[in-house]
Design goal:
By secondary structure, the protein is an alpha/beta fold. Helix content is about 45%, strand content about 15%. The chain is built from 31 helices and 29 strands. The longest helix has 30 residues. The protein binds one RNA strand through β8, α8, α11, α20 and α23.
Length: about 900
RNA sequence: GGGCGGCUAGCUCAGCUGGUUAGAGCAACCGGUUUACAUCCGGUAGGUCGCAGGUUCGAGUCCUGUGCCGCCCACCA
């Protein structure tokens, strides 16, 4: 009889498509509003919104697989799981992207009006912005796309602007003329976080400035930026620097454009660097700017916004780019006789993360945020209201908050949230009296003009958990169930955006909710309770994936070739906690092999008989328990152990291991190990014999397999949703169109116990001994062995029951057994609770086995010596805990016995040692 | 200049509060199977736990120092 109806292998492309459709059709990705209202507990994850300009990469795959696992598992626990998805408008990148796109169509963005440009950008976004989210569907992500949010959506924008206005009203946002990081390519200010430093080899030039009133006498300064000399407004020295006491209060000539500038004293100058004298260019250096402020110096901005020099830099440099201007300025200085010397110098240069060019410290008028409630943001993490996994990132977070600088919020771009500030037309913009700050603008709008700048993209991202859930609009918050889903449960993201995003979300949340919700505890207003930091996906040589190296695989192609489940398996199983991931396609092959094996285990089950018509867990357990034997009991216990361990590793809750959770890899490994080693290699092999010889137990045997498979499929479902769903259907475990991730995990421990399926201590020992004996006997069975098994019962041993004897022989390959009085001393033997086993040997010890016995003997003697030494040590006996001492005693006893046995064998073989 | 992480088998990593003979997967090697398993199973070998001290009855695990590798932060022109 052949019941097999399944294909031979898992055809993932058909199944993925069919299954996806079915999940969507049945609404299994939608949030169950009825359930929320009925009081079920709620679980939410905010997906880090991919940029609209983004291209799907391995990092997305990993990050979203992990979130998907958490969400599906939450559903399986019976919680109402909500996974917020959406996209980020991606300020600068998007503007650059669209400009490029327009250029390729022969259109010049710079000649367009704001409105015209935005129309193009919006069209581009609507066409391309969601691509990643759609591609993620291929991976199986179960987020609810009907609730996706884009950061420029009306409601969300409203939230962002409301945040700005509120922060302004509370005095945290101010407008100021200060030095900012200027990107000369994008022609906008950027935040400190968008600048990374790179060590660059350059020169330190020593330049002399002649004193105005004492020709022939000079003061020398050192600089790396001679092109900014035109911006010099003073020379500063440290007030305690005795070398320069005479120079103070005098004036010297700026070499070019030639002009007299004062020599001043300021504490900020380092005596030990260079000559100890510093040229002050307030428009081109943050330190100089501060010094300038203190001494009321003018600001001479010698540079244009595109990084070229202007007239103030001297007419020789005007219009020349800053790089070329540096070379030129040195030539000029040399001609003027002002260049004293030059030496190689290595310095840290700020690079714009966006355009890759050196940033320019530039004086400009911008909006800044003085971070509010840093104390609360710190406490949230320090006091454990938000927990980081791995924990060490807490230090990075706290350190950043401790050294925080004001945040330059405004960007000189078109794409983004336009700053909600209006200036009275024709009036002084410096004067706050002429400002209007609100979401809707002034009533007499004809008298006002709006600020042309937009907000930093990350400012809007900081509101993600608030804005997506409808804050600050009461009605929206009600329909989006803010009160149920906030605080969200877990944030899954990369440690590289702790500053950009994580810390800022916390800051905004505690600032706004701390005020609105009076009397609430900090733990109720944080945006998320846990943050899981993923590693960076690197190639198998540990290199960062990059286009130029060509080492970044195309995720879609991988999904095409291996299937989503294999890709997910491969990613998860190469994810160590808190370290970077070395991606190797080999892991995807392992994933595929695992899928094939899982598929075939289920196929084998169906080959033995039709699927059960019991589709509920309870009757499945009952059927499995009816007539179960010691092996079934042991399997049930092992299943429970895997069930519990796997869940604890992922979901936490283990005893004495409080912080251990989110161990995706270990959790999956536990299941794989159970499936392969316990279920397939032992239990199914045992069942093959059982099905052949014990026809009357077939029903129970298959029921037991069903119980194990259905539990396993459920546990694996979050990791590999497609194949498990398909097998679940094929095996008839659920009702038609039932989404596996919505089927609640059973209370397995209770059910097994209630049905007397769990093994006793004795049974566990027996099966362990059985499997040990099987392993050892297999190991010593030569290939093609056709002798028989010798069995010698010892006086102290327990009876070797039929229930162990028959399966043992069957699993050894159906060899015969001979009961003997005594196992000969010269053969390798296996000791079990039932007696001593050996394979009948035709000849004496081979050289090989002789060597083995000698090795074993040496090891036994080492152990004997080690344990004797311990037990002879009075301090050890006095101080070590009882169980450790007993362990040592047992070890000694066992090894002494082993030694005797091995010696006996060697003697029996006539060998002398 | 600060800070963080890594260094355990050829490779990638486990190893929780110090306690039996340091583990897994992959690769290697040997053997078997190809009527569940585009495979699978069984087995073998492989480690002075970066180095040096210290604490302890006992250290991969704790402390101190140190060496490499990587990352982050920092206004010395």
């Amino acid at each position: 009889m052949d019941y097999a109806t399944m294909e031979k292998t898992f055809n993932f492309s058909d199944v993925e498509k069919r299954t996806s459709d079915s999940w969507l059709r049945s609404g299994s990705f939608s949030v169950d509003c009825a359930a929320i209202d009925s009081g079920r507990s709620c679980y939410a994850i905010m997906m880090p919104p991919p940029n609209v300009t983004g291209v799907l990469h391995m990092g997305h795959l990993l990050n979203n697989t992990l979130q998907d696992i958490l969400i599906r598992r939450a559903s399986q626990r019976g919680e109402v799981a909500f996974w917020q998805s959406g996209t980020d408008h991606a300020g600068i990148s998007m503007q650059v992207r669209v400009e490029k796109d327009l250029l390729s169509k022969g259109l010049d963005a710079k000649k367009m009006s704001r409105e015209e440009f935005l129309r193009h950008a919006e069209r581009w976004r609507d066409e391309h912005g969601d691509i990643i989210l759609r591609q993620l569907r291929r991976l199986g992500v179960c987020c609810d796309l009907t609730r996706k949010v884009h950061t420029l959506d009306r409601d969300y924008s409203n939230c962002v602007l409301r945040g700005f206005v509120e922060l302004y009203r509370r005095g945290h946002i101010y407008r100021g003329r200060r030095i900012v990081n200027w990107c000369p390519v994008s022609k906008t200010a950027i935040s400190d976080e968008e600048v990374f430093t790179r060590e660059v080899d350059g020169h330190l030039w020593r330049i002399r400035y002649e004193l105005v009133d004492e020709p022939g006498k000079y003061i020398e300064v050192c600089t790396t930026r001679p092109e900014t000399i035109g911006g010099d407004v003073a020379i500063a020295v440290n007030p305690n620097d005795l070398r320069y006491t005479d120079f103070l209060g005098k004036r010297c000539w700026r070499p070019f454009p030639r002009e007299a500038i004062p020599i001043i004293a300021d504490e900020a100058v380092d005596k030990s660097f260079g000559t100890g004298a510093l040229k002050i260019t307030p428009a081109h250096s943050a330190v100089d700017f501060e010094i300038g402020q203190r001494h009321n110096l003018p600001v001479r901005d010698a540079m244009n916004e595109d990084g070229t020099m202007n007239e103030l830099a001297g007419k020789e440099l005007a219009g020349i780019d800053r790089g070329a201007a540096r070379v030129k300025s040195i030539e000029i200085l040399r001609e003027l006789g002002c260049l004293v010397s030059s030496e190689p110098h290595r310095s840290a240069l700020g690079i714009s993360e966006r355009s890759g060019v050196p940033i320019e410290p530039r004086i400009s008028e911008q909006w800044f945020l003085r971070y509010p409630h840093i104390d609360l943001a710190k406490r949230a993490v320090e006091e454990g209201h938000i927990r980081f996994f791995p924990r060490r990132w807490e230090k990075t977070y706290i350190h950043w908050l401790n050294n925080i600088h004001d945040w330059c919020l405004s960007r000189q771009l078109l794409w983004g949230h336009r700053i909600p500030v209006w200036y009275r037309i024709g009036a002084d913009r410096q004067d706050p009296e002429n400002w209007h700050v609100s979401i809707d603008g002034p009533a007499d709008s004809e008298n006002w003009e709006r600020d042309g700048d937009v907000l930093d993209t990350w400012f809007s991202s900081a509101f993600w958990p608030l804005g997506t859930l409808g804050w600050p609009d009461d009605k929206l918050m009600e329909t989006r169930k803010f009160s149920k889903f906030y605080p969200t449960h877990t944030l899954v993201t990369g440690p590289d955006i702790i500053f950009f995003w994580v810390a800022r979300m916390v800051t905004m949340a505690v600032t706004f909710l701390g005020n609105d919700l009076k009397g609430k505890n900090l733990c109720e207003i944080v945006p998320f309770r846990n943050v899981y930091f993923t590693g960076i996906v690197r190639d198998n040589l540990g290199r960062k994936m990059s286009k130029s190296l060509g080492n970044s695989p195309d995720p879609i192609e991988l999904l095409d070739r291996y299937g989503a489940d294999s890709v997910r398996f491969g990613l998860v199983s190469s994810t160590p906690l808190g370290q970077d991931i070395l991606f190797d396609e080999k892991n995807l092959e392992l994933g595929r092999n695992f899928c094939t094996k899982l598929w075939n285990a289920c196929r084998f089950r169906l080959m033995q008989g039709p699927p059960s018509d019991r589709c509920d867990f309870a009757s499945s357990v009952a059927a499995a328990a009816d007539g179960a034997d010691v092996f079934d009991h042991q399997m049930a216990s092992t299943l429970l152990a895997a069930f519990t361990t796997s869940r604890e590793l992922l979901e936490g809750g283990g005893q004495g291991k409080s912080e251990r959770r989110y161990l995706f890899q270990a959790s999956l490994q536990t299941l794989e190990h159970f499936f392969r080693d316990d279920f397939c290699d032992f239990y199914v092999e045992l069942c093959k014999w059982r099905l052949k010889e014990l026809g009357n137990r077939k029903g129970q045997t298959l029921a037991m397999q069903d119980l194990i498979l259905r539990t396993l499929l459920q546990l694996l479902a979050p990791f590999m949703p497609f194949i498990t769903q398909e097998l679940w259907n094929q095996l008839n475990f659920g009702t038609a169109d039932e989404a596996l991730h919505l089927v609640q995990l059973p209370d397995l421990g209770y059910a097994l116990k209630a049905n007397n399926l769990l093994a006793t201590e004795l049974e566990l020992e027996q099966v362990a001994a059985f499997r040990m004996a099987l392993t050892q006997l297999r190991a010593m069975t030569p290939s093609g062995f056709c002798g028989s098994l010798l069995f010698g019962q010892l006086p102290s041993s327990k009876p070797f029951e039929e229930k162990f004897r028959r399966p043992l022989l069957a699993m050894l390959g159906n060899i015969g057994v001979k009961n003997v009085e005594k196992i000969p001393e010269n053969v390798a033997a296996v000791d079990t609770p039932w007696g001593r086993f050996a394979l009948e040997a035709n000849d004496g010890l081979s050289a090989e086995s002789f060597a083995k016995i000698k090795d074993a003997l040496a090891l036994a003697r080492r152990n004997i010596a080690a344990n004797r030494a311990k037990l002879d040590d009075g301090t050890f006996l006095a101080k070590a805990p009882q169980n450790v001492v007993e362990g040592a005693r047992r070890m000694l006893k066992e090894n002494l016995e082993l030694e005797a046995q091995l010696l006996g064998r060697l003697e029996g073989s006539g060998e002398v040692i």
